[in-house]
């Protein structure tokens, strides 16, 4: 994802959890500074700041809505190198 951006996914079935790892790519770590926000039906479930001192974060949050929102917002130094790689993203659905 390259930010600033807001991406909304309509979930085809009810889900209970979202998990992933987000990280600044190596080329963006010197100047990158971004806020990663995860929402379930417009309720904030996760927020982390990624920058040189904190280049990655693990997400593992409950969700209970029909829409998942992933937002990359500008950090303290604006929108320079605001990009993340999302790895092993998964949704757990209700049985």
Kindly describe this structure.
The chain has no helices and seven strands. The strands form two sheets. A four-stranded antiparallel sheet has the order 1-6-3-4, with no helix packed on it. The chain is elongated and about 45 Å long. The model has no long low-confidence stretch (mean pLDDT 90). By secondary structure, it is mainly beta. 0% of the residues lie in helices and 57% in strands.
Describe the global form: elongated
Strand content is: over 45%
In round numbers, the mean pLDDT is 90
Number of helices: 0
Radius of gyration: 13 Å
Helix content estimate? under 10%
Low-pLDDT segments, ≥5 res: none
Lateral arrangement of strands in the main beta sheet: 1-6-3-4
For the termini, the CA-CA separation is 30 Å
Class derived from helix and strand content = mainly beta
Number of strands: 7
- The succession of helices and strands, N to C, reads EEEEEEE
* Biggest sheet details: 4 strands, antiparallel
């Amino acid at each position: 994802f390259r930010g600033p951006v807001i991406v909304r996914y309509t979930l085809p079935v009810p889900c209970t959890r979202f998990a992933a790892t987000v990280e600044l790519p190596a080329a963006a770590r010197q100047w990158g500074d971004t806020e990663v926000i995860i929402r379930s039906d417009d309720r904030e479930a996760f927020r982390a700041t990624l920058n040189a001192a904190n280049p990655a974060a693990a997400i593992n949050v409950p969700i209970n809505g029909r829409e998942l929102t992933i937002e990359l917002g500008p950090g303290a130094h604006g929108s320079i190198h605001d990009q993340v790689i999302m790895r092993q993203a998964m949704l757990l659905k209700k049985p």
